[in-house]
Specification:
- The protein is an alpha/beta fold.
- It has 11 helices and 12 strands.
- Strands 4-3-5-12-6 form a 5-stranded mixed sheet, with helices on both faces. Strands 9-8-10-7-11 form a 5-stranded mixed sheet, covered by helices on one side. Strands 1-2 form a two-stranded antiparallel sheet.
- The chain is elongated, with a radius of gyration of 28 Å.
Length: 307
């Protein structure tokens, strides 16, 4: 955009059109009529086109003016909305956002996102619900949630929702340090121990099943199906159970040496993690703030090679 265009130019132009008079525009903006006229002339010189005609019938938009007016009006409205949003977020106005997150996201991504939001809008109430994919998408459909972050689900669960990819994530197979399978790690051997397995409601289950089938590994008979992260962590640390879970859920435990990832190929379980919203709805100020915080955190993770 031409840097010579100032907000005062847009305000003058929009007010002239709204009031169909330079005099009324001057009164609204608390300026003199010559000042308003000068701002309009400067704007027309900058854009290189006549925007308004003046006649006995008053002010009228030219074709170029009609085109420019729609964008000028929208720009000022967006700026006013942004300023109002900043003011509202700085006050205790009861603004709130309900977010659903799959366990891997709740564990890895949301803590820094919450910190980002708190720095901008300390009074905003953030409610976070985790759970299986179908449960969270149903709540989003029903208006109980404003946004969901998780894996791209089956087509029937995504009807009426938009999906914006954030990063890719695979599945990890983890055990406690010193587990017997680590002496000779192989995917086929996991069936010799209890397996904590994704239930039918988990977005990763079809991917895990396809991985096992591709490697000729039968569905573990001694399996515990759950999405409970607390149970998975405790059971895996305290026993010989083997946990199949999204990498993001256990990334910190693996980095700290509390859990060990089996060195087996899980590339086929790689899938998109993204932001889900109700399709066709205008974003609220709270949603926009959340999305921007999310984008900043994702950029940092990518810079660190973690996303």
């Amino acid at each position: 955009m031409d840097r010579r265009i100032k907000i005062r130019h847009l305000q003058a132009f929009v007010e002239i059109v709204r009031g169909r008079s330079l005099k009324r525009a001057a009164e609204t903006l608390h300026l003199t009529q010559p000042a308003i006229s000068r701002s309009l002339s400067e704007l027309e010189d900058i854009v290189g086109a006549e925007l308004l005609t003046r006649g006995r019938g008053g002010i009228a938009l030219t074709a170029q003016g009609e085109l420019f007016h729609s964008f000028a009006n929208a720009s000022l409205a967006s700026l006013e909305q942004g300023l109002a949003g900043l003011q509202a977020f700085g006050e205790d106005t009861g603004s709130r956002l309900n977010v659903g997150a799959l366990p891997s996201v709740a564990a890895r991504l949301l803590p820094p996102v919450v910190d980002e939001i708190a720095a901008v809008a300390p009074s905003m109430r953030l409610r976070i619900i985790d759970g299986p994919h179908h449960h969270l998408t149903r709540l989003l459909h029903d208006g109980e949630l404003d946004a969901v972050i998780g894996r791209l689900g089956e087509p029937e669960t995504m009807h009426g929702l938009s999906f914006t990819q954030l990063y890719m994530e695979d599945v990890a197979i983890v055990v406690r340090p010193g587990h017997p399978i680590l002496q000779s790690p192989a995917l086929a051997r996991i069936v010799d121990w209890p397996v904590i397995y994704p239930p039918s409601t988990a977005a990763i289950r079809p991917l895990v099943r396809r991985m096992l089938v591709a490697e000729g590994v039968p569905l573990p008979r001694n399996r515990i199906e759950t999405v409970s992260v607390c149970f998975g962590r405790a059971k895996t640390r305290d026993s010989d159970a083997i946990w199949i879970i999204s990498t993001g859920v256990v990334a910190r435990e693996i980095a700290a040496g509390e859990l060990v990832r089996l060195p087996v190929e899980t590339r086929t379980t790689r899938g998109a993690v993204g932001l889900m919203l109700r399709a066709g709805e205008v974003e609220s100020s709270e949603q926009r703030l959340f999305i921007q915080a999310l984008e900043r955190v994702i950029r940092r993770l990518r810079a660190a090679g973690e996303a």
